[in-house]
Amino acid sequence: MRVILDDVIVRRGSFQLTASGTFSKGVHLVTGPVGSGKSTLALALAGALRPVTGQIVEDGIGSRTLALPFPEYHVTGETLEREVASWGLVPAPVLEAAGLSGRGGEDVLRCSQGELKRLVLSCILAREWDLLILDEPCSSLDCAWKEAFARKLGERRKGITILLTHEDEVLPRVDEIWEIQAGRLASLGRVPEAIPRWSRPPRYIRAALDAGALPENITRKDVRDAVCRTRG
Amino acid sequence: MITITGLFHRVLEIPDLLIPAGRVAVIGPNGGGKTTLLRLLAGIDLPVKGEILIDGVPPRSREVGWVGEQPEREIIFHRVSDEIASPLRFRNDPCPLVDERVKAVAGELGIGGLLGRETRGLSAGEKAKVALGAALAARPDILVLDETDSNLDQESAGAVEGIIRRISCPHVLQATQRMELAARSDHILFLERGRVLHSGSPSAVFTALSGTPFSPPSMWCG
Q1: Tens digits of per-residue pLDDT, A165-197?
Q2: Do A113 and A142 lie in a common domain?
Q3: Under DSSP, is residue B163 helix (H, G, I), strand (E, B) or coil?
Q4: Does A33 contact B153 at a Cβ distance shorter than 8 Å?
């Protein structure tokens, strides 16, 4: 199971992104500041934006989905219950996973941003996908929910998960890190070797690296363990 | 000083609370009442029961600046200069004074170069700064930021934090999910299920929150 970006150039308005590389099975983190091209890449990977040159070749990909940064843009159900059902899922367990038990009859657009994110992410994570693309899935979530979803994402073993984010406080366990710089996507390699190559890591990782700690992965727990080990 | 007495409003139950002047971080889980409290402090909503006084005066009698979670959805004018000028024009300040103040605020925020630009074409970080410019134009007594940093990367969030540290606004209340940012504030309120569970200095509040997802990296390893 692979997605191969073969000298791809994608354009959106005057912005251009160049990308080459192979996304294989596992969890991939694509980072870069706001406006660097993460959403453009997400749309191209999802097939919603056609490259102007090069090609995106898929190998063994059947089911796929894209989570947009603002969930209100892709809800279709009128109520929380109907939204869950629209994903082909039984509402009660998904609502429970989203911390929204007993609210199935409520208008979906009366949810707060955080609640809507929880609802849509819980629907997405309740299903298996060969290719799961998540564009800023954790913005609007509080620290506890960010950790809960990061844990679930890091546990995904089936399929290819591509997380595109500038999140700088809570990240999942990942297999490979990619960075977009000056309109170009490049793989930094597999974790943990990729971590010191990261040019703009979140502050908690930068602080750990500066203190001489090399975490095994990029979750807060991995980094905390590495820092505390270094301090003895 | 902000005093809250006998406050009952939607999810909020705050019998008594004193919030000192300075930069105050409002933290806690989603749905805990952060936005509800900030809207009351900004005078956008009035409490069903209870009283809020900012230096002895209700919020609606104070000059308030507000920036929400998605600043681009609050921007209403096409040009950056018009957006920043809006609160001054709405209260009919004389044009020369408005122009002067817009330039001064843009200078303070380091966005003088954006004044002639269209708001639509700005980056998320630039939009947040423009919204902040509009919020600060009328020299507010209280500036309220409701997770304004949630869609910003760490560079833009850092730039916004730098601005907030430089300005002279007596009360700045900022809801955030960035615990390191909260750790650098003067005072923290931790809200959960409508109650203020912790109110105090960053070190006191984060000691109480040790071992929870709300503990910032700088407090790790004891």
Answers
A1: 999 889 999 999 999 999 999 999 999 999 999
A2: no
A3: helix
A4: yes
Domain that includes residue A220, residue range? 2-63+129-231
Q: Which domains does chain B have, with CATH numbers?
A: 1-62+141-222 (3.40.50.300), 71-140 (no CATH)
Token representation of residue B52 = 């809020």
Which two three-digit tokens encode residue A25? 């099975």
Contact B154 A231 (CB under 8 A): no
Partners of B53 in the beta sheet?
A: B3
Which residues from chain B sit within 8 angstroms of residue A142, using beta carbons? 28-30, 32, 177
Q: Is residue A31 located within the same domain as residue A106? A: no
Chain B touched by A139 (CB under 8 Å): yes
Would you call B154 and A203 a contact, using CB atoms and an 8 Å cutoff?
yes
Shortest alpha-carbon distance between residue B94 and chain A (Å):
37
**Interface test with chain A among B72, B150, B212, by most A beta carbons within 10 Å:** B150
Complex ipTM, two decimals? 0.80
* Chain segment B15-62, per-residue pLDDT in tens: 999 999 999 999 999 889 999 999 999 999 999 999 999 999 999 999
- Burial of B216 (C-beta count, 10 Å sphere; 0-12/13-18/19+): buried
**pTM for the full model?**
0.88
Q: Please state, in angstroms and rounded to a whole number, the distance separating the CA atoms of residues A163 and A172.
A: 9
Asked if A168's CB is within 8 angstroms of B154's CB, the reply is yes
